[in-house]
Design brief:
This protein has about 220 residues and is α/β, with parallel strands linked by helices. It is about 35% helix and about 20% strand. It has a domain of about 140 residues. The longest helix has 22 residues.
């Protein structure tokens, strides 16, 4: 597959007015560059589960039964299960996904967790949609939008997406085990550079099923 590569993106980043406050975020990100190599597929999980625009904001709260996505003002509002289910069910022929940082639904590893009393708990976590989406697509190149401001990070991510696209072509075109191994061998230097995960990629490419080595 050649550019533009199909890549999912948190919809607010495209300028679409889907955030809780009815605004978008595109003015803050270099998507004029990305649009040259990516065909962007917008996804807003909060709108996807039926929340309105504008809407009351949600945040992550640590409770006795785990981290939950609940209303900032209406604490009886809990959309955890809906966001997690949306992430598990979302399927698309993508070669990557760009997430909105710090979002309670889309943050990769940057979302604050609050205590029940409203204080910020220790640590940063993934948003509810991002958590289950990434778990359902463990090899898909994912990144937060803020990282793409840096040219080196941006070029590295574009390379990851290109490699993933090539990989999908190899495994979906009836390739032999020898051809798959050749692909892994040809990208060994990229594995060393952490552009590709070593064991998970090799196992998936070869059709092996030992889940213990994929963790």
């Amino acid at each position: 597959m050649k550019p533009p590569f199909p890549v999912g993106i948190s919809e607010c980043l495209t300028g679409a007015q889907v955030r809780y406050d009815g605004k978008g975020k595109s003015e803050a990100y270099p998507f004029d560059v990305l649009k040259e190599v990516f065909s962007l597929t917008p996804v807003c999980p909060e709108v996807g589960i039926g929340l309105s625009v504008p809407r009351s904001p949600i945040r992550l709260v640590r409770t006795a039964i785990g981290t939950r996505a609940v209303g900032v003002f209406d604490k009886s509002q809990d959309v955890t299960d809906q966001l997690e289910a949306y992430g598990e069910q979302k399927r698309a022929s993508l070669c990557g996904f760009i997430f909105m940082e710090r979002s309670p639904s889309c943050g990769l590893n940057s979302t604050k967790v609050h205590n029940l009393d409203g204080g910020v708990a220790m640590g940063l976590v993934r948003g509810m949609f991002a958590r289950t989406f990434v778990a359902s697509h463990p090899y898909l190149p994912c990144v937060e939008a803020q990282a793409l401001w840096d040219e080196e990070n941006r070029n590295k991510y574009i390379k990851k997406v290109s490699i993933y696209s090539h990989w999908q072509e190899v495994i979906n075109n009836g390739s032999t085990e020898e051809e798959r191994l050749s692909f892994c061998t040809s990208y060994q230097s990229l594995i060393t550079q952490e552009l590709l995960p070593e064991n998970p990629l090799k196992q998936l490419m070869l059709g092996l099923s030992d889940d213990s080595d994929r963790r």
